Amino acid sequence: MAEYLSPGVYVEEFDSGVKAMEGVGTSTGGFIGMAERGPVDGKPVLVTSFADYQRVFGGYLPEESYGERRFLPYAVDRFFANGGSSCYVMRVKPDGAAAASGTATICLGEEPQADDDPVQTIQLTFAARDIGAAGNSLSVTLETAPKSRSAVLEQQDNGAKLRLKNASQFAEGDAVTFGCTIVGSDQKETPVVADAIVAAKSGDWITLKEPLTYQVMNGAEQVDTPLPAGKLVDTAAVPKLALNALGYRATVQADGEQEVYENVSLSASSDRWLPEVLKASKWIAASAANKTIKKKELPQGAVWLTAVVGGSPLVQFLSGGSDGTPATTAVSAYTGTDGGPGKRTGLRAFLEINDVNIMAMPGITDQGTLLEMVSQCENSGGCFTVLDCPSGAVSVDDLATYREAFDSSYAALYHPWLQFFDPLLKANRYFPPSGALAGVYARVDHTRGVHKAPANETVTGCTGLQVTYNEAEQAKLNPKGVNLIRALPGQGIRVWGARTLSSDGNWKYINVRRLFIFLESSIKANTSWVVFEPNDQTLWSRVESTIRAFLTTQWRNGALTGGSPDEAFYVNVGTSTMTQDDILNGRLICEIGVAPVRPAEFVIFRITQKMEEA
């Protein structure tokens, strides 16, 4: 509450009675299937074009190795070709698939003489982020890359110790270069390795392995001169006596692409520790472990730090990646597991997001797996499922029997499979219709609105049907909720059904269910401002006005039937919808009724003879 303590003019802002409401999206797809590469757990990946999909998940899949599990890239391609604009994709891990890996050992310090002498080592383990044989082409190169730490020499003790002034962090195992610039002489940088530096700070002493020298010109001859003993203080504005750390450059190479990370460190206390830096890599992850072992126990290929500092790079190739057996992978992999946030796989990974509106598992026709997807969509309340029939189900009886397993207004079933050109095989092949139908849904949403039934629409790119059905056969299947795709003379190949799989007549049309999903999600997303507001007449009036304004817009757009807003919907909130107990327990109950438009599924023209009047 504003305070008015002195005379004057006060200007205040206040909320009006109506809050603006914006409709949520209805056309974002969600696809689950096998891919050439890509993550197999965590949040599904958003792609906005098929080229975007290819960059993350690879291209089309060969039939000989993937069999009936190869349809994901084709479905995503057809989704965008038929009008889709964005979708989320979750890759399924094939049975037996493994990520490529490689281990390198780096030795710190100088190489001892005796085989039983201890050696301090860092064991680096690299692993491909994506499972599959493609990871076998990955490699990591580690080479020296100077990095200035702005550590200024303050004092020298017997030519063997340095004291640091204004030093930033140095870590154990860091190699250092002492750079010396003397007025009237040439500059010389002598590589020097320090003894076991542990987080050196300003004022710390650092022991060097050898005395430092610098070169001066004595006539035409260069003479190496030891640094003078005693106190050396650099007072120049730009330091001339400085200590630099040698960082490393890590290069990751894969499929012609390259990632370069500068100034990485092999010390866990550094902010540029190699495993932490590689968390940003698209291709590879790393872990490190410090171990002290005997010289004779060193693995073959171990690299000495001094050799790396000297310029010889460490090159580690990854191997052991496997594509597994995708063609025989159990369908239970598509359902996935719920390992908690960031660890979910398959269908369960879509619990991580809430803006997917159209779900599909292209080519998967196992009824138990599809029922899991339908159930998850029903529980979310904001998603619709497009299902495929088995390619071998041809007869009316086979399709009717298959359909009996489902009863949900959140799903629709389509048949037959569609013929498209396969860019991989350079020939026409039959594919499940769910990907293309999800694109048709999105196209209708964009051009007409979610209230328009996604039927009597052409399927872009479709050149044929696996099975051709006639009107008598459709008359048996349409009432059961099997939506056929038919080739109509002179009209191309069209979606010729708009039924859900619900036994409830109120929810038999796809557009009615999807309209309610849209209305419910929009109202939920735009009324969070109501929470914790005073639950009184003023709030009730504002809620009613806000929702009424939103529904009036939907009526004007043709989503609701009726000659006026009062015929199209009603909104009640107040003592007629809430008891005193509801109010005392913090509940605001608003009752909304809408009259959705239904498709003209049967167009009937009644014609009779008109007799000529006398």
What does this structure look like?
The structure is a single chain. This protein has 614 residues and is α+β, with helices and mostly antiparallel strands. It has 14 helices and 27 strands. α1 runs antiparallel to α3.
List keywords for this structure.
flat; 614 residues; alpha+beta; 8-stranded mixed sheet; 28% strand
Task: Summarize this structure briefly.
The protein is of the alpha+beta class. The protein is built from 14 helices and 27 strands.
Main sheet characteristics:
8 strands, mixed
- The best one-word shape is flat
CATH class of the domain at 29-96 and 326-512: Alpha Beta
CATH architecture of the domain at 29-96 and 326-512: 3-Layer(aba) Sandwich
CATH topology call of the domain at 29-96 and 326-512: Rossmann fold
Low-confidence stretches: none
Residues in helices, as a percent range? 10-25%
Instruction: Work out the strand percent.
Output: 25-35%
Secondary structure blueprint with pairings:
Elements: E1 29-33, E2 45-47, H1 50-57, H2 63-66, H3 72-81, E3 87-91, E4 99-107, E5 118-131, E6 139-157, E7 161-165, E8 175-180, E9 188-192, E10 205-207, E11 213-218, E12 221-226, E13 241-254, E14 257-264, H4 274-277, E15 284-294, E16 303-304, H5 305-309, E17 314-317, H6 332-335, E18 358-360, H7 367-380, E19 384-388, H8 396-403, E20 411-415, E21 418-422, E22 427-431, H9 434-447, E23 464-465, H10 471-477, E24 482-488, E25 492-495, H11 510-526, H12 537-556, H13 565-568, E26 569-573, H14 580-584, E27 590-594
Parallel strand pairs: 1-3, 1-18, 4-16, 18-19, 19-20, 20-24
Antiparallel strand pairs: 2-3, 4-5, 5-15, 6-7, 6-13, 6-17, 7-10, 8-9, 8-13, 11-12, 13-14, 21-22, 21-23, 24-25, 26-27
